[in-house]
Design goal:
This protein is α/β, with parallel strands linked by helices. It is built from six helices and five strands. It folds into two domains: about 55 residues; about 110 residues, 3-Layer(aba) Sandwich (Trna Endonuclease, Chain: A, domain 1), CATH 3.40.1350.
Amino acid sequence: MWLLVTVVRVLIHFVQDCWPWLVGVLVLVTVIVGAITVLNELAKHEAHQREERLKSIARFERVDVMTGTDFEELIAELLRRDGYRDVAVIGRSGDRGVDITARTPDGRKIAVQCKRQARNVPPDRIRNLIGAVHSTYAGHRGVLVTNSGYTAQAQSEGRGRIVMIGREELGLWMAGTSLKL
């Protein structure tokens, strides 16, 4: 009993001597927790808005009339949605055969070429990406995404060398199936 009374007295004296500091720490902790809560809610809201935007544009009737640049941005957003990191749209000039670079969720590097076109992708596009991956983007895995398909020769040349995402795979990806590389 004596020990309990002594501990309570020590605590009371500590609080009486240090109350301004204790109040300051309590206020600081409250502000930090509040800021973290607000930032988390903003991130959730941003993710929800991004998902809604993707749902509105990730449909073939929209994709088939997009500009090449808009298609690249769509593919970049799909990658981000699926947890790919360091997603960078390189752009038109100086892209050296690759439109997007990124890292898979487990950290592997990828180099993505986007082809939004009406006809099937010919084999020279496959060869261009393979060349870019072996020279400028060494260490990256090549990925070619199209809203159309691939010619038989293109499929033959790319098989086992790059990942080829055609119309059917793109449709599933846009509908919410995660891209696994």
